[in-house]
Amino acid sequence: xxxxxxxxxxxxxxxxxxxxxxxxxxxxxxxxxxxxxxxxxxxxxxxxxxxxxxxxxxxxxxxxxxxxxxxxxxxxxxxxxxxxxxxxxxxxxxxxxxxxxxxxxxxxxxxxxxxxxxxxxxxxxxxxxxxxxxxxxxxxxxxxxxxxxxxxxxxxxxxxxxxxxxxxxxxxxxxxxxxxxxxxxxxxxxxxxxxxxxxxxxxxxxxxxxxxxxxx
Length: 216
Known about the structure:
alpha/beta
């Protein structure tokens, strides 16, 4: 076990097997409209903030109970609990970050016992979705900067695991950049590419990273 090492995960489609807003849209019969916008954002074809506003506009009026049920029903990625356990054994601080929402992120934090999560907030009035509070923008790294400075963990001790074009700024924080079932633009900038939906596939690369730290 070593100390002062950090791993940053995108939450949706990495720690969780799916994307929250498309699943919520599916539950209320608006899957096609929301998925089209989601995919454009993941591929980098539209600004992420623009896409989020469009999707929330489509979903306004959704009941809090429906959103909560979707968040509770989403499955963790295969072997997420096992992989996180291994990472904790290795001494990692674990951060989850998402441009999605706390209604899912907080559940993932509790279930996986992550150290920190960063997410946006859905706003409900009279039990119905009316808008959002933006805490994490298209540059997800900005949301983490203050915490990382406080932790005192440097880039050479940090790993980032992401899937989408809107996650690429997180690579700037990390020595080891892992693309997990990722878009091609992410794969092209990664040190490691994992194309199987199984988080235990990360562990050999993470273990090698730790061994190199100890020997350096």
